[in-house]
Specification:
This protein is mainly α. The protein is built from 12 helices and 5 strands. A hairpin with a 2-residue loop joins strand 2 and strand 3. Helix 3 packs antiparallel against helix 4, helix 9 packs parallel to helix 11 and helix 10 runs antiparallel to helix 11.
Length: 319
């Protein structure tokens, strides 16, 4: 009896493992076919009944070991049933571990990137998987792949906007381990190859704004936005200062954006001290006027929203 029970248990475990592998293969195919997925949802099995599993979805093929009641993708939106999450996670972790241990050159790198992507969507706190991706991306510079990496980070941040491992994990630079977000690492990598990062900076700023709308007081996101300032052109800094005014007025309790505005103003101030030319004198006058306008605007907010101390965060001497 014990032997029969053990055999039955082993057969059950094998069946579960095969189901997990089949769903993982299907999951990775969905991610490969639709590179523009921008939202992920983890739904209770009963919620899947409201989803239309039609032929208009981004994937239409059927596999026996992976019924559509586990995965759904349409209009760049991906839904995963919580019923299959444990099996899918174990399968993805096992596949990633095997690919990370293999030494088959480019084939191993392809598998590693595919399996690590699936694993990180399920568990974005897996720092080892993030660092494995960095090692692969560091071998050969590929701007398209680096942009895909930003897309992956944005996808994860869409459902986990305060995830510390996505915003901040470790990167090996030179002989020291330094804290570096995956997004910052990509931007730094692009700038090192003397490529224009203006478009990326604009995209990053929009992303932070979107995340700030969904997640209140997200200092990790705003800290990332402050980090972007040295990579901005003067025009971008002025534009960011202008655009953030309205946002601040609607979110006076969120001091993160006030700190961001102060960082923008300080960056403009620092840029005036680079050269002592006629053009720099004009810039100094312009920056001086911006500081005066900022103080006047802050005073207006303080009078309008009494008790909101954060609106006075930029009251510093610009001299």
């Amino acid at each position: 009896m014990e032997q029969e029970a053990a055999t039955a248990l082993a057969a059950k475990q094998e069946e579960v493992a095969q189901l997990g592998e089949g769903i993982l293969h299907h999951f990775e195919q969905i991610l490969h076919q639709d590179s523009l997925i921008d939202e992920v949802g983890f739904l209770h099995p009963t919620q899947f009944q409201s989803l239309e599993h039609s032929q208009t979805s981004n994937w239409t093929f059927e596999v026996p070991e992976c019924p559509q009641r586990y995965l759904w993708c349409k209009d760049h939106k991906l839904a995963i049933s919580t019923e299959i999450l444990p099996k899918l996670y174990r399968a993805s972790q096992h596949a990633y571990s095997n690919s990370a241990a293999a030494k088959d050159g480019s084939f191993m790198e392809t598998d590693l990137m595919r399996h690590s992507k699936a694993l990180l969507i399920l568990c974005p706190d897996m720092l080892t998987a993030w660092n494995s991706r960095k090692i692969v991306l560091s071998v050969n510079y590929d701007f398209t792949k680096l942009k895909d990496e930003l897309q992956l980070c944005a996808l994860i941040l869409s459902y986990s906007p305060k995830n510390e491992s996505t915003w901040s994990h470790r990167d090996f630079l030179g002989k020291k381990w330094m804290p570096m977000t995956n997004r910052r690492w990509v931007i730094k990598k692009v700038s090192e190859h003397n490529q224009d990062v203006s478009e990326l900076i604009e995209m990053e700023s929009v992303l932070v704004k979107q995340i700030a709308e969904k997640s209140k007081m997200n200092y990790r996101a705003w800290r990332h936005r402050c980090w972007l300032i040295p990579y901005m052109t003067r025009e971008q800094v002025l534009n960011e200062l202008k655009k953030s005014t309205r946002w601040n007025e609607l979110h006076v309790a969120d001091n993160c954006c006030f700190h961001y505005r102060r960082s923008l103003l300080l960056a403009l101030l620092d840029s005036c001290h680079v050269e002592d030319t006629e053009d720099s004198l004009d810039r100094k006058s312009e920056v001086h006027l911006l500081w005066k306008e900022e103080l006047t605007w802050n005073e207006k907010l303080i009078r309008r929203y009494q008790g909101r101390e954060c609106v006075g965060v930029v009251f510093v001497d610009p001299s």
